[in-house]
Amino acid sequence: MRNQSEYHDNFVFLKQLFCRCLIGLLLIGFMGFVIGCDSSSSSSSDQPSDPGPETPGETPGETPGETPGTEEPGLMSFLALVTSPSGEPVANAVIGDIGITAEDGVAAGKGELDAESWYPVSAIGYAPNFVRADGELNGTLIYETVLTPVKSQESFTPGNVTIIRDDPTDPVVEITVPGDVFSEENVFLELTRINPLHLGPLFAPNDSAKTLYPRIAFSIEAIDTNGNTADFLIGSNATVRITDNGILGDSPILTRFNPASGLWESLAHGMSRRIDENTIEATLQHFSTYGGMNDDSPAGASRDYGGARSRYQDAVKKWAEQGGGSVPPQAVIDALEDLAAEAEAFAQGRQDEVAKQRLLTVVAQAQLVGMDELSSRLLQKTKDIAQGIARGLINDPDCGRLREMTGSMAQCQLLGLNDEARQLEEKIRELIKVCNNWHGTINYIMDMESPYPDYADYEVDDLVKHSGPGTWTELHEVVLSINPENFKITGDDKVTLIAPEVAYRAPEEDPESCSGEGYLELRNRANPAIGNLFLTIDGSFESGERPQFTLGMPEKHAGSDSIAMQFIYYFRCAPESIGPMVNTIVPAHSYRSLLVGVGQTPPITLQEMLNSGQYNDHGPWEIIKGYRPAVPLNAAARGMWPFTRVTVQWHFAHVKPVLE
Q1: What one-character-per-residue DSSP string does 319-348 give?
Q2: Would you tell me the crossing angle of helices 402-415 and 372-395 to the nearest 10 degrees?
Q3: What is the pLDDT of residue 269?
Q4: Are the beta carbons of 137 and 411 closer than 8 angstroms?
Q5: Which residues fall within 8 angstroms of residue 612, CB to CB, at 6 or more apart?
Q6: What is the band of 222 on the pLDDT scale with cuts at 50, 70, 90?
Q7: Distance between alpha carbon 448 and the CA centroid of its chain, in Å?
Q8: Which of 108, 44, 47, 18 is closest to 390 using CA atoms?
Q9: Rounded to an integer, what distance in angstroms lies between the CA atom of residue 59 and that of residue 79?
Q10: Which of 259-273, 411-425, 531-545, 634-648 shows the lowest mean pLDDT across its residues?
Q11: pLDDT of residue 336
């Protein structure tokens, strides 16, 4: 389960990622990568307290846990990449208590790391995952993981039974939550079906004697009004029903991943059972990441980079089960060469962090198993990409890219690109005196209504949802930059609308253009279904015991197009007839973002979020977070869009500027 109260309230990773790093720039310079600050003050409860085994792949002559060029025994450097299933970088993703990703999806720093430990990874709008080091390169641990966007959300109120499904049209996973499970008001539930290939611990062992793999996986979370994890009341249970079509066998095994043990742990006997040939049912005593297990490895299910990576991990797992050894078997060598080929093909012609990190993952693995020629070849390609990224940042330094610059400098040091590392350090030294940024994520979850909120505009009497998802989502990545001379704010906001097609249908009796029964269908068309636009923000800032923001209404960035949105009438004859009889485009407003206000007024302004959210001051850094469940939209939005309320989550982090 994502421990949100820990990563929001403690935020040790922000100290480790920034504060000594920034102070060190001005006082002692960089000694290695990004140096942690007071890193012993907190640790995640999900992490094991005992140190793991020695990190494999150490450079000869070094002491395990030490990093060349540092004077801080026990701290290890890390580089981590977090992407979506489509390969897009995920900004502001929290990795345990050690790091948070920049806009390029990369986190870099130092921490009290153990290569064998599993760390939770989470971000607003995504289901949580877990990650363990893929390997080590010159004393730096390499991490790579995928976060899946949340699929279904429901509000829970004590006393009311809540049912949440991962897809209303195909309820593969359905969870029934009794009204006495939580004591908090307005708990928010998030359910996500996860492709097993995107599970970090896909090939982690299970607690039975038989080798099993997650064949069906899902995450279920409960979040309270402060954005923290809501725990079950003692003795409370929820019920999950999974349509598995029999693939989990007659005695289905449902497991929960425990990062402390590194195992998929089976539910107690009798808590999962088959109720018919297609369906199983299980009792849940807490929410977490679950896997329905069988002995069929999913490693060959995909022929891309993700599939090649899973096949390699499966080969390594089987090697370990057979006793391991100093020489890898041919199956491991073949799988790693396939993975290298996929990483190289993906990186061809690209110069971004995703391509670089995929190559770096293979380099670390090749060094681990002694494939030096492969490692050297891919390492040079990795250096070429890293150098190109660094040069772009050196030529275009900006406060909003300070986190990217810090991560790039760390990678240049790792890869021996000393000239680029030095120039980045100089640019960072200049910027750190004036950069004063708030980095944030805002997530809107729009409940799709049925019937349509205001169907009178469409001149039909009964327009109800026929198909499509239960929600649309709108995700914001915000950077606010404060001028230290006049405390004026400028900012940018990348808005991503995920609006899968939803259809509303009304019956039409004896239509003139059709003999027999027909029906009218109204569908939304977003072009694309996942679209981006950019907003600019201006305002002012006042520091104090609690910062105060005065912000204007965000406006569309010059040159940024609104997300194209259309509604289309389909008039059909009887449902079995072929094709639409009429296909008419209905005029619709361009989607402007809920932060601006799809119906003239936003449900909550950015200024209200920052001034009314829960505030935590931790010395060198500050946190503002908040949650508003089921905020009703104003009347102007009714009829324009197929939703009348929205749930809002926000989380902003600020590292105070370093003064000379």
Answers
A1: HHHTT--SS--HHHHHHHHHHHHHHHHHHT
A2: 140
A3: 81
A4: no
A5: 626
A6: very high
A7: 23
A8: 108
A9: 17
A10: 634-648
A11: 96
Of 12-16, 139-143, 162-166, 581-585, the range with the highest mean pLDDT is 139-143
More confident residue, 13 or 232: 232
**What are the tokens at 129?**
């995952």
What are the φ/ψ torsions at residue 155 (nearest 5 degrees)?
A: -90, 140
Other beta carbons within 10 angstroms of residue 565's beta carbon come to 20
Q: How far apart are CA 135 and CA 646, in angstroms?
A: 42
Q: Which two three-digit tokens encode residue 6?
A: 């820990």
Q: Which of 510, 595, 607, 522 is nearest to 565 (CA)?
A: 522
Distance CA 48, CA 33 (A): 25
> What does each C-alpha distance from 324 to 39, 328, 338, 574 come to in angstroms?
35, 8, 21, 63
User: What's the predicted TM-score (pTM) here?
Assistant: 0.77
pLDDT at 55 exceeding the cut of 80? no
Stretch 156-182: mean pLDDT: 84
| SS3 sequence of 45-108 | CCCCCCCCCCCCCCCCCCCCCCCCCCCCCCCEEEEEEEECCCCCECCCCEECCCEECCCCCEEE
Q: At 645, is the secondary structure helix, strand, or coil?
A: strand
Residue 192 is encoded by which pair of tokens? 């996500």
User: How far, in Å, CA of 613 to CA of 376, rounded?
Assistant: 50
User: 244 by DSSP, 3-state: which?
Assistant: coil
Q: What is the DSSP letter of 315?
A: H
Highest mean pLDDT among 10-14, 50-54, 140-144, 634-638: 140-144
Tally of CA atoms within 13 A in the half-sphere of 148 that contains its CB? 24
Residue 316: phi and psi, rounded to 5, are -65, -40
Looking at residues 337-365, what average pLDDT do you find?
A: 94
CA dihedral over 506, 510, 511, 513, signed as positive or negative: positive
With 0-12 CB in 10 A as exposed, 13-18 as middle and 19+ as buried, what is 569? middle
β-pair type (152-156, 187-194): antiparallel
Average pLDDT of every residue of the chain: 80
Q: Who contacts 9 (Cβ-Cβ below 8 Å, separation ≥6)? A: 228, 616, 623
State the burial class of residue 272 (Cβ atoms within 10 Å of its Cβ: 0-12, 13-18, 19+): buried
Q: What is the pLDDT of residue 508?
A: 66
Residues in the chain: 660
Encode burial over 322-354: b for 16+ CB neighbours within 10 A, e otherwise.
eeeeeebbeebbebbbbbbebbbebbeeeeebb
Compute the distance between CA of residue 1 and CA of residue 5 in angstroms, rounded to an integer.
11
- Return the residue matching tokens 């607690």: 207
Torsion sign across C-alpha atoms 384, 390, 396, 400: positive
Distance (Å, rounded) from C-alpha 218 to C-alpha 184? 24
The 10 Å Cβ neighbour count of residue 233 is: 12
Q: Which has the closest alpha carbon to 98: 84, 115, 78, 126?
A: 78
pLDDT at 15 over 60: no
With contact defined as beta carbons under 8 Å apart, do 571 and 581 qualify?
A: yes
Residue in the structure block whose two tokens are 């990576």:
309
* Rounded-to-integer distance, Cα 594 and Cα 603, Å: 7
Determine the Cα angle at 130 with ends 124 and 133, to 5°: 125
Of 599, 610, 621, 618, which is closest to residue 651 (Cα–Cα)? 610
Indicate if the pLDDT at residue 514 is higher than 70: no
d(Cα 607, Cα 255) in Å, to the nearest integer? 43
**What is the rounded CA–CA span in Å between residue 652 and residue 609?**
10
Task: Please say whether the beta carbons of 99 and 78 come within 8 A.
Answer: yes
Q: Which of 417, 406, 441 is nearest to 658 (CA)?
A: 406
Distance CA 119, CA 200 (A): 10
Take residue 534 and report the two structure tokens written for it.
Answer: 């950019």
pLDDT above 50 (res 456): yes
What's the rounded Cα separation, in Å, for the pair 531 and 525?
12
